[in-house]
Amino acid sequence: MSNVAFDTLKLAKRLEEVGFAPNQAAATSSAIADAMSDLIANLATKTDIVLLRRDMAEIELRMTVKLGAMLAAAVGITAGLVKLL
Question: Same domain, yes or no, for 38 and 54?
Fold first, then answer.
């Protein structure tokens, strides 16, 4: 888990100022810091995006080849049926 530059004590004091109980303010600020750390840890990096684009290009190529094969098969079947009928 990565560290987030987040002042939990400042948030807890601010929450206490608006009426939160001290233990509730501390727990809330800690939960927010944990959630932010999880969010930061799960962000995509530039490398992740490059790999994703490469994977998408490979999938696009495979789909194009499969579509071409299906089209060729359909034309062949149609031509065969035309000759039979």
Answer: no
